[in-house]
């Protein structure tokens, strides 16, 4: 398989056209025409992830978060980010980033998060558009129903368990109602809490909620669970499963490896 084979197949699943405007998705580095024998899935492309890729003789790093959000101003290798680029080039590793197109895709990131929570009868949280590949509606986030009602604390513990986090932040009104309907949006979704309310959500799960937005959520009687941005690391195993299936379907002799590193910058103490 060459790198472009995987890129073309993935872009049928999550077309670049459904990414948010200005999102730096797609090929980040390398020559997609080269042969690929080992693909690594990861949430982030960090120096330690690149070291892992080199150790496992990876040819292609497939990440959710784009490696290059901001263009380099120079190639001074004393800068850790620049040194990482140099290592990737030295070892001839292709890097591809699938960000908001994977967030928006049907069967993508936000469906995976909803599955982890056990949500049923899900619909998109945010209005998107029509997928040019399938003709189906798409949108970021999901809203669905729990199999049984939970109080706020029980729901927070449920989130902690299914996402495997050591701690999270719970925002709750003085007298929260029982939770039946839940909205979820991976990444930083605090600004969309009003959309969750409009879709009838009793609780909202998203990361990076700011202080003042937290107060607004309380004022609107919305229970919110912030388990952090890093819960999107579930993409590693889900992408590994999908890519393995595609390898079988297309007779690609490729090993699919999910990064074993935890790239969450935060530690609970």
UniProtKB/TrEMBL annotation:
The keyword Metal-binding applies. This is GTP cyclohydrolase 1 type 2 homolog. Signal peptide: none annotated. A divalent metal cation 1 binds at residues 65, 103, 229, 232. One of its GO terms (molecular function) is metal ion binding. GO terms for cellular component: cytoplasm. PANTHER family: GTP CYCLOHYDROLASE 1 TYPE 2 HOMOLOG, NGG1 INTERACTING FACTOR 3. InterPro entries: DUF34/NIF3 (IPR002678), DUF34/NIF3_sf (IPR036069). The keyword Lyase does not apply. Belongs to the GTP cyclohydrolase I type 2/NIF3 family.
């Amino acid at each position: 398989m060459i790198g472009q084979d995987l890129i073309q197949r993935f872009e049928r699943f999550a077309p670049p056209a459904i990414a948010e405007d200005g999102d730096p998705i797609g090929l980040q580095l390398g020559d997609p025409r080269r042969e690929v024998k080992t693909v690594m899935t990861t949430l982030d492309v960090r120096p330690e992830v690149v070291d892992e890729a080199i150790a496992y003789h990876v040819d292609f790093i497939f990440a959710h978060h784009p490696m290059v959000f901001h263009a380099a101003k120079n190639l001074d290798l004393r800068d850790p980010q620049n040194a990482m680029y140099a290592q990737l080039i030295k070892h001839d590793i292709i890097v591809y980033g699938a960000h908001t197109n994977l967030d928006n895709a049907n069967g993508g990131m936000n469906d995976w998060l909803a599955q982890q929570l056990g949500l049923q009868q899900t619909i998109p949280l945010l209005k998107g558009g029509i997928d040019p590949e399938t003709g189906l509606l798409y949108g970021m986030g999901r809203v669905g129903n729990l199999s049984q009602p939970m109080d706020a604390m029980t729901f927070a513990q449920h989130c902690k368990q299914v996402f495997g986090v050591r701690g999270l932040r719970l925002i709750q009104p003085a007298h929260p109602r029982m939770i039946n309907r839940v909205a979820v949006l991976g990444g930083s979704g605090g600004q969309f809490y009003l959309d969750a309310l409009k879709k009838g959500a009793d609780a909202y799960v998203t990361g990076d909620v700011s202080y003042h937005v937290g107060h607004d959520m309380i004022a609107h009687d919305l229970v919110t669970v912030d388990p952090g941005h890093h819960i999107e690391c579930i993409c590693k195993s889900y992408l590994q499963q999908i890519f393995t299936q595609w390898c079988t379907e297309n007779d690609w002799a490729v090993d699919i490896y999910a990064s074993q590193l935890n790239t969450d910058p935060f530690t609970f103490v």
